[in-house]
Amino acid sequence: MIKKILSILLVLFALHTTKIYAQRIMGEAIFGMNLSKIEGDLINNGSFKFNKPGLNLGVGAIVPINDLFAINVQTIFSQKGAYQNYGPYADSARPYYKTRLDYAEVPILFSYHDKNGLTFSTGLAYSRLVRAQWTVNGREVSNSTSDGYFSLNNLDWIADFKYKVWRNAQINIQYQYGITSVWSGNEEDLLVTQGGVVQKPFQQNSTLSFRVVWLFGEMQSKQVREGVE
Description:
The chain is mainly beta.
């Protein structure tokens, strides 16, 4: 009988703790755009020209550790790649060129929340390629994720800055840089310029994101944390 009572009390305690912990978690809706390039593909390589625009949309959950630190997990649809208009020659380093790489991403960030409304975060993002399109000199080379040109799985490093501008609204600037290569094709398939320069087989996404983040449950989370503490 005592064991049954203790078991019931433990279950009730676990449910109560889970409910409190769940109430601590904040949600976020993310809306914005990317400007991207691919380092190593000779298109805007090494420059500050992020010529490929794309969408950046998703949702996230923020798990506070205390009033200053938190873990942020997101699910993002992100369009990356590279783009350049016609160059001086049809096979030059800057031909009509477009790489479109659409990803489903899961960033995991460690965040510091300043009392003045600034949030600084860093972390990693795992991304899964869901669509690929590659056009060189106006000719579509690939329009599939299964042809082997581009890696299906990627890992990026993230630096992220948010600032609260109104109620639950934050403006967000994020930079991502690839740790793994987006290229997985054969070396003979790489672009060769008229001067004989070949694209690097190790190519990395480089992406600037400008987003608006709407936060849910901030006051409830703060009240629960204060009550628990």
